[in-house]
Amino acid sequence: MERPGYKKCTASTVLILMAILFLMTDVLLNRVGSNEKTLMYKPATKRVFHSVVDVDTVQPITGKFGSTQWRRYMPEIDDLLTKIEKNQVEWPVDIKLTTDPKNTAIVFGSSMQLQVGQKLKGTIQARDFKGREKQYGGDYFRGRLLRLDNKGNQLRDGVAVFIQDFYNGTYEWKTVVPWPGQCRLIVELVHSSEAVVELTLKRATLVNRNRGFMGKFANGKSSECDVMLRPTEGNSICDFSNATRGITWHCYKPPGLDTCPKSATTYSITTKDGTVLGSQPLFKKGVTWQTEILNSGLSFQVNGTIDEMPRGLMKCDTSKGSLRKNTFALKQPRGYFYQDRWVSMLCDNSKTSTLRECLKHKSLHLIGDSTIRQWYYSIQERLELQDTGHPNKDFWSMPRKGIGAKDDIYIYYTAHGNPLYNPGPPIVRPFIVDTLLSINGSRPTAVVLNIGGHFLCHDPAAFIQRVVAIKNAVMLLHERHPTVKFFIKGATRFTSSRVTPLSDWLYLRTDRILRAYFYDMPYVAHIDTWEMTFNPGEGLHAPTSTVEKFIDQFVSYFC
Length: 559
Description:
Number of helices: 12
CATH topology of the largest domain: Rossmann fold
Shape: globular
């Protein structure tokens, strides 16, 4: 079924895609391991090109808040921005009228005499610094329920709290109590709704205001590059965009050249401005940013035993339609940590294969940014695989290949194309579309895709363009090799970062877009790493122990 708003694939687009598929055959043969069957590409007997859509060209940003397509996936923000656009909500707003965490309180709606397995719920009423109730939503809260030991110390067990926005300044929160003993509820205001608006405004651009790209060309000259540059006096534009790959990419024409080169030979990353957030009063830690609200930190006792939690869940088989769809849905909680192990509430992951048994006689392709590269190194170390990737340590996004000859295991890592804030030549920034079309799925194969973190500084239009192209490539790979299993790795929460805006709300936005675009694909499942990082670390990269739990969840789905 076509996605509303897109035209059917044109004949020229189909021919281009078919040509790419045949040209990539040679690449395909170079990617397989020594024990893998080298199977030439053969077209499927029935082509289903009607499901492939044209990739829209990214247009210059004209609206005050940037592009609008992403807003349908975050209705609470769309409601707020629409009210501002209609002058129903004042903007800009005095800081005293923004959400004050010290005036915003948790209200408990259920008895505190709790048993294991019961739901814990209540409301939140947002208030400003004058103590007045807010009349619109959009606040970004983070909630979690933590398990304590007998001395009140926090354990590594916890469960996320789901918070629903009613668009009028009130919110409902709810979670489940999965274990007995002492527990503590934490709810913090990460960003006020006004700060979210500010983030939206600052990222309504196709040029990163904080970090940039310098492309070096064959003549030795360098010039600035980004998603969409505007010509200036003395600077004309070289357009390296490619709709099939889902990229809009411009560079200023390098000095000394009469015509545009074919591509840059390498990229370096530059810093323009260290201020990665909007006006500072909205992002003052402990005052307006990442601050616990009233009644947060309350502890209480839970009676019962862990055996009282619901049992009889279905197997973690994501080929089953209902489970696969539930992996994308925003219903929470999906699981919880108990004794430092992730316990799924979607399916029974208590009897999962070991990592080695799962991957024996299989290939695994890990495609995306550094958060999926963490998976590669974790698996490579756990299974003691031979790392046969490119040895250049100066460029950490180089393609990697791990081989376990004894168990016939092949693991590949490849990054994604620009924008990618890693230095190096084109080999470190291959496009996901090209990587997907080069995969040989003639043996049991899984593909885990991850993208989003390097798009946080641009308007979501650039990200959506890339996602549509990737979705097309997933369709085509599935057509060639229907047994290949696909997984989307979600975003992870974080509290700070050196290289991106200090806000995981922007990462949440890309996560919502990914969920929406891949939800309707019956052979793609979602790994909800967002909820598994309910107790976020400081940076974009989850600690090794958490990455291992992400991988274990993937194993429960794949095997």
